[in-house]
Structure to design on (495 residues):
């Protein structure tokens, strides 16, 4: 399938404001940055986690630790599909008793988050786990919801939501891609 | 995901696939550092270790790898199976196939045993060493260890010293090194080289002392007394004095060079105890890498299998 860009739903300013708001919401919900640690889901979730940590440091003056999670080995579809690229997980803080905020770019079926929860639990027993996403596009297949959402974007299943970040793509935007119907 | 369903020889993997296996292994190495060294990845899959030759490190390594991926591992060893009652390899294979296993690791004294299993079984086959032919996962873990220690593979000059003609380790390592752009050099007395050393595709040298200063890796092979028809050299002492790695020889290696051995070692023959236990020996790192590399091989062979069949 070939996808073409249908609409830009967030530009750089909107993304910046959304991340700043999420940083505030995380601090508000947890009454400060005390026990918080961020865990970004590879790959764009990690960049977003770093950006949230920067903002939290700016607001609160506290450095929250950031880890990166690769969920390839926890996927529920390993038998049918392998991740093209496996990255190494790095959780440089003790998880035990902490508040872990999982960070990802797009929330869709919820299966990635289910895998990420299993992955983080293998490092210890967190006091609680929260979820921050830049975009929630709906179509959940599991009973999972995000605690902090940048923007709710209604989509159809035929569409894709793509988050472009400077770190990877040299562009800051959230766009909806649509199958151009031309097939392979 | 690998193009081949099996890893029976180094011919089954391309240079890109070797890179993928080593990168995946790096992620599994992180898992092996955790307190809970277990992943749910291959839950419900069955891995059979079919070992017709004695083995501790290879069998244990595959067994641990399967367990850490939550696969069910079953060990068949020749001495405790129906083989002692005269069952043929083909019948043993068919019996196991009837029990629907997903991956078989086989070690056998005859070259080609894995290929025979692949003919009668509908599952992935990994060669855990067949006769004097190949031992591909050993070569992969060796590459992984070299890359961890030296930061690269391309351009390395790797001396493989000793019993080349009986070595399935060399049988896989030489082509593996060539695939990744390293230079294999086999260093051995003529009695331990194959009749036609030129077919190896490696540089051939007889004088270890002459070879040492240019090596990045000095890989010592175990002298396989059990496979040799007659003593291939006059005495162990003579072999040690000409081809054994000792402190004096280690000093002739470049300062960055590492010493490797696939184990089990004949201490005092191909390697002296003080070299084996020195900080330039990565022999235990090789064992450690073995688990991660075998996890990567199992993951890449068994994962994504259905889509591979459909595509």
């Amino acid at each position: 399938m070939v996808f073409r860009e249908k609409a830009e739903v967030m530009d750089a300013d909107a993304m910046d404001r959304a991340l700043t708001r999420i940083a505030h919401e995380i601090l508000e919900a947890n009454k400060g940055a005390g026990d918080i640690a961020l865990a970004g889901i590879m790959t764009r979730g990690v960049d977003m986690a770093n950006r949230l940590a920067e903002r939290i440091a700016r607001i609160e003056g506290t450095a929250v630790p950031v880890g990166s999670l690769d969920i390839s080995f926890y996927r529920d579809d390993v038998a049918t599909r392998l991740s093209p690229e496996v990255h190494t997980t790095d959780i440089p803080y003790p998880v035990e008793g902490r508040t872990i905020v999982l960070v990802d770019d797009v929330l869709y079926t919820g299966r990635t988050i289910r895998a990420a929860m299993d992955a983080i639990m293998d490092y210890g027993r967190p006091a609680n786990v929260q979820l921050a996403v830049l975009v929630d596009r709906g179509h959940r297949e599991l009973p999972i919801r995000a605690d902090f959402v940048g923007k709710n974007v209604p989509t159809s299943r035929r569409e894709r939501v793509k988050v472009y970040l400077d770190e990877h793509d040299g562009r800051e935007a959230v766009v909806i891609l649509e199958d151009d119907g031309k097939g392979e | 995901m690998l193009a081949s369903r099996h890893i029976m020889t180094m011919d089954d993997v391309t240079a890109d696939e070797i890179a993928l296996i080593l990168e995946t292994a790096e992620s599994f190495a992180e898992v092996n550092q955790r307190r809970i060294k277990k992943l749910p990845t291959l839950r419900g899959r069955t891995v059979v270790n079919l070992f017709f030759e004695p083995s501790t490190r290879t069998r244990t390594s595959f067994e641990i790898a399967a367990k850490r991926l939550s696969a069910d591992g079953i060990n068949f060893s020749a001495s405790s199976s129906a083989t002692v009652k005269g069952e043929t390899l083909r019948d043993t294979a068919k019996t196991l196939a009837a029990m629907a296993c997903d991956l078989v690791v086989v070690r056998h004294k005859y070259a080609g045993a894995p290929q025979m299993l692949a003919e009668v079984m509908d599952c992935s086959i990994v060669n855990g060493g067949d006769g004097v032919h190949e031992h591909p996962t050993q070569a992969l873990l060796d590459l992984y260890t070299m890359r961890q220690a030296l930061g690269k593979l391309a351009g390395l000059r790797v001396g493989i010293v000793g019993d080349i003609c009986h070595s399935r380790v060399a049988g896989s390592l030489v082509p593996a090194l060539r695939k990744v752009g390293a230079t294999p050099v086999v260093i051995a007395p003529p009695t331990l080289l194959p009749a036609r050393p030129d077919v190896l595709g490696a540089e051939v040298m007889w004088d270890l002392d002459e070879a040492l200063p240019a090596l990045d890796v000095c890989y010592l092979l175990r002298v396989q007394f059990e496979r040799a028809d007659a003593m291939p050299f006059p005495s162990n002492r003579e072999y040690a004095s000409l081809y054994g790695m000792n402190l004096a020889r280690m000093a002739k290696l470049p300062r960055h060079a590492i010493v490797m051995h696939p184990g089990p070692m004949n201490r005092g023959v191909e390697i002296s105890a003080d070299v084996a236990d020195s900080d330039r020996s990565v022999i235990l790192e090789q064992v450690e890498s073995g688990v991660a590399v075998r996890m990567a091989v199992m993951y890449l062979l068994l994962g994504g299998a259905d889509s591979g069949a459909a595509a």
Notes: Residues 307-311 of chain B have pLDDT under 50 and may be disordered. The first strand of chain B starts at residue 46 and ends at 51. Chain B has two domains: 10-134+288-306, 136-282.
